[in-house]
Design goal:
The complex is a heterodimer of chains A (114) and B (113). Chain A has 114 residues and is mainly beta. Chain A is 0% helix and 56% strand. The chains are: A mainly beta (114), B mainly beta (113).
């Protein structure tokens, strides 16, 4: 069993749709939960992070973490063609080192068509 | 230059060649990372350097040899690679004490023939 499971898609939605991206994980030591966005021919960039359980909102993006179910989500409201990218979930445990050994999901390819 | 830069952006090498990938970060970070990104697979952490010292080696074959001469530069020396090593190699850096935030370079697309 993979430590982090993410549906690779691809996911294709019309402009303006609400997009839901999800990951499940098995390691209960994970404390930080991140979403990275990767455009074609670019490296991943951090979109949002959440510490422990709860919700976090940033503009059109909302991240949710349910540690009891080991399930995280990213919602994109009013999706735009510029949101077309690969979305990677990532997780890391809570301490022990000053750097992070991130564990990534496979990534979901999202296309928003006009 | 800003952020994390990587050279070359594309590399084609034969199985008997020796080549090196270079990464430079202009962010003042202390930790640097090498990742491998293959199609249909998650990013795989290869090496971590913290304050120039290698702190993690994720069971990477010895044909990959990292080098970190200072906190701003990271190299990945390649020799006797296999076709299955063809992938996107990403370098990243992170600030001290921030476990969740890593800044990635654009990657080197490596093809082994």
């Amino acid at each position: 069993q993979k430590e982090v499971e993410q549906d690779p898609g691809p996911l294709s939605v019309p402009e303006g749709a609400i997009v839901s991206l999800n990951c499940t994980y098995s390691n209960s030591a994970f404390q930080y939960f991140m979403w990275y966005r990767q455009y074609s021919r670019k490296g991943p960039e951090l979109l949002m992070y959440t510490y422990s359980s709860g919700n976090k909102e940033d503009g059109r993006f909302t991240a949710q973490v349910d540690k009891s179910s080991k399930y995280i989500s990213l919602f994109i409201r009013d999706s735009q063609p510029s949101d077309s990218a690969t979305y990677l979930c990532a997780m890391v445990d809570g301490g022990g080192t000053s750097y992070g050994k991130l564990t990534f999901g496979q990534g979901t390819i999202l296309t928003v068509h006009p | 230059e800003t952020g994390v830069t990587q050279t070359p952006r594309h590399l084609v090498m034969g199985m008997t060649n020796k080549k090196s990938l270079k990464c430079e970060q202009h962010l003042g970070h202390n930790a640097m990372y090498w990742y491998k990104q293959s199609a249909k697979k998650p990013l795989e952490l290869m090496f971590v350097y913290n304050f120039k010292e290698q702190t993690e080696n994720n069971s990477v074959p010895s044909r990959f040899s990292p080098e970190c001469p200072n906190s701003s530069h990271l190299f990945l020396h390649l020799h006797t690679l296999q076709p299955e090593d063809s992938a996107l190699y990403l370098c990243a850096s992170s600030p001290q004490g921030v476990r969740y935030e890593q800044y990635f370079g654009p990657g080197t697309r490596l093809t082994v023939t």
